[in-house]
Specification:
mainly alpha; 2 domains; 4 strands; 66% helix; elongated
Length: 225
């Protein structure tokens, strides 16, 4: 990734994280995490400061630290839209995806609070029986899905860093399921939003249906463990 590309992605992801809201504060470290990929950490603050000098950002802080909050300006949002279109990225579609992902997480939280989703009584820590058929089927399907998504050149080319970040989350969720005991709530938060995101990005309806089936398998497995 070049510095110019990083700067463009910084602006795009700021617009997405802020959900297009001029009053929503975003922090440089959040944007860098959303971008993903490999880049020097020393780029983060200077990039934000440069974009502020170009009147794309506003901040009451000096913008000297990755935790200094800032907001996007109307000019910044317009530029993010323009750059996004040149890269095949519709920021408003991504904002909708982000809102839906957050709502999905909240729905699971509410379900747990109402005991709709069965949980253990101690921090949702559950035991994983890796010898059970349910686990073996889930593990196999999750691994296959991750490999297929990693090899989906169309999604990776269009979505770029976002697809990489989502894949990393799936791999992290898979690792959580390898332990003898794991936090069911954390597994849901890590796996389900990204699987939902991918189910909307794949063009093949059959592939989308399989991802949705995997989501159901995960929910059922965690509820029954």
């Amino acid at each position: 990734m070049t510095f110019t590309e990083f700067k463009q992605f910084f602006l795009i992801h700021t617009a997405i994280l802020a959900k297009g809201d001029f009053d929503a504060e975003v922090r440089p470290e959040q944007v860098a995490q959303a971008i993903g990929g490999k880049f020097p950490k020393s780029w983060i603050v200077p990039t934000g400061r440069r974009l502020m000098e170009e009147h794309y950002f506003e901040s009451n802080y000096a913008f000297t630290d990755v935790t200094d909050p800032f907001t996007i300006t109307p000019a910044g949002l317009e530029e993010a839209e323009r750059i996004g279109l040149t890269r095949g990225i519709d920021i408003w579609t991504k904002i909708e995806d982000q809102v839906e992902t957050e709502e999905l997480g909240e729905a699971y939280d509410h379900a747990q609070a109402a005991d709709v989703v069965p949980t253990t009584k101690v921090e949702e820590v559950i035991g994983i029986d890796r010898l059970s058929d349910a686990y073996k089927n889930l593990d196999a399907q999750l691994r296959i899905t991750i490999e297929e998504l990693r090899g989906n050149n169309e999604i990776n080319a269009i979505e770029g860093p976002e697809a990489s970040r989502r894949l990393a989350e799936l791999e992290a969720g898979n690792r959580l399921l390898q332990a003898d005991r794991t936090d069911a709530s954390l597994v849901r938060r890590v796996l389900l939003p990204s699987l939902t995101w991918f189910s909307k990005k794949v063009r093949d309806e059959a592939a989308s249906a399989l991802i949705k089936k995997l989501i159901a398998m995960i929910v059922a497995f965690l509820a029954g463990s």
